Amino acid sequence: MHALSSYLILSALLFSLGLYTVITRKNAVAILMGIELILNAANVNFIAFSKFVTHHVEGHLMAVFIIMLAAAEAAVALAIILNLYNDHGNINVDEANALKR
Amino acid sequence: MGEVIFWVIWALVAVSAMVVAFSKNLVYSVFSLLATFIGVAGIYIFLNADFLAVTQIVIYVGGILVLLVFGIMLTNRIVVAKITQSSLQRTTGLVVVGAIFLVLVLTLLNQTWPLATSAAEFDSTVNNIGELLFGDYLILFEVASVLLLGALIGAATLARKEL
Amino acid sequence: MHEHYGVVLAFGILGFILMYVAFILQKLIGPKNSSELKLDTYECGEPTEGSSWVQFNIRFYVIALIFIVFDVEVVFLFPWAVVFKDMGFVTFIEVFVFLAILVVGLAYVWAKGDLEWVKMKLKYGTGRYAATRLHESESP
After folding, report:
1. Which residues does chain A have within 8 Å of residue B56's beta carbon, measured at their own beta carbons?
2. More confident residue, C121 or B48
3. Neighbours of chain B (3+ CB pairs under 8 A)
């Protein structure tokens, strides 16, 4: 079978691309997409280690909770983004620099 | 055959994640995110995580991605199917992230992991996950419902304000 | 274990290929006499008005929100269905508490009126067509 490192390199790549998306994008929805990439990278790591190192399903359980958390986070973040759009007319995060209108 | 399929899925995840990060068109980004999620579900299958693969498809592809598409459709005045997006500090970001990626890869290649000795594979993980979820991790399971309740009420309140 | 999922992959690839086969077939054997009328959205019936690329109504979002919360709930119920026979009645109570907490959220959204598509707040005669209706009733 494939070595552990092939999964870990994929996870590192996903994490780096997600981080790049988060720090360079202006659009708030695109930043949210970067966060989802980072969470996926964490999940791949959890499951790869649970197969190759601990050999127990507890890593899978952590990944289920991470996915659940990602759903809740996406829901609340998009509601905030909709409010931002309502106030500013766009969702560029570099222009959202006021605490109140 | 399995080896070839694994590397094809590996390349699919890597390339589609790059499209998510580098594409100028937001709609291309969100649809290649779909390919990334499905590819990661395939990777889970290779890691003997059948329940996780289904969870990934149901929640990420069926739920979160739909929410993201809604977010795009609700926040753009669309005239054509091309929604451009701009980026800040591309070069700096690329240098920093590239350095982080290099450090990560070098670290994990020079590491000897304490690999498990038993090679027995799980038949199906759903049973084990269920036993843990309703046994040792019961509190976490119940707290998860409170978190979901909070997310639902909070997001509905935030979204309603602008009606 | 991944050997069992070759069937799933085969089905996925087959579905993808069949979609393109349908596209290519209709390109090859379909008649090509396009005219202005053929390009209409509805060839017979109402002529369309404006573009269909419009901004979505914000109320779709709350529906999607409720959907995603109960989507997550369904995923948590799958392992319960598998272990219910072995672990017995106590898991039923555990899941019941889980569901009861989530139903509070549904009740909240329902009570606040987010589920109602048409907001029944307008008084009679203040709507969009009130003026015309008034006009019609006066004219005869």
Report:
1. 43, 67
2. B48
3. A, C
- ipTM score assigned to the predicted complex: 0.90
Residues 6+ apart with CB under 8 A from A46: A59, A60, A62, A63, A66
Which C residues in the span 25-64 are in contact with A, Cβ-Cβ below 8 Å? 58, 61
Q: How many CB pairs under 8 A join B and C?
A: 140
Q: Name the minimum distance, in Å, from the CA of C33 to any CA of chain B.
A: 26
What's the rounded mean pLDDT across residues C68-96? Answer: 89
Asked if the Cβ–Cβ distance from A75 to C68 is below 8 Å, we say yes
Nearest to A39 by CA among A23, A9, A17: A17
| Domain total in chain A | 1
Which residues have CB under 8 Å from B76's CB, separation 6+? B26, B83, C55
What's the pTM? 0.85
Residues of C in contact with A65 (CB under 8 A): none
Residues of chain B under the 50 pLDDT cut: 163
A101 in any annotated domain: no
- Residue in C with minimal Cα distance to A72: C69
Helix (H, G, I), strand (E, B) or coil at A92: strand
- Confidence (pLDDT) at C124: 55
The two tokens of residue C122 are 């307008």
Which pLDDT tens digit goes with each residue over A57-71? Answer: 888 999 999 999 999
Describe chain C by its helix, strand, coil percentages, rounded to 5.
65, 0, 35
Would you tell me which CATH number, out of the four given (3.20.20.70, 1.20.120.1200, 3.30.930.10, 3.30.300.20), belongs to the domain B1-108?
1.20.120.1200
Q: What is the CA radius of gyration of chain B?
A: 20
Give the CATH architecture of domain C57-119. Answer: Up-down Bundle (1.20)
Model pLDDT for residues B10-24, shown as the tens digit of each residue = 999 999 999 999 988
- Parent domain of A19: 4-95
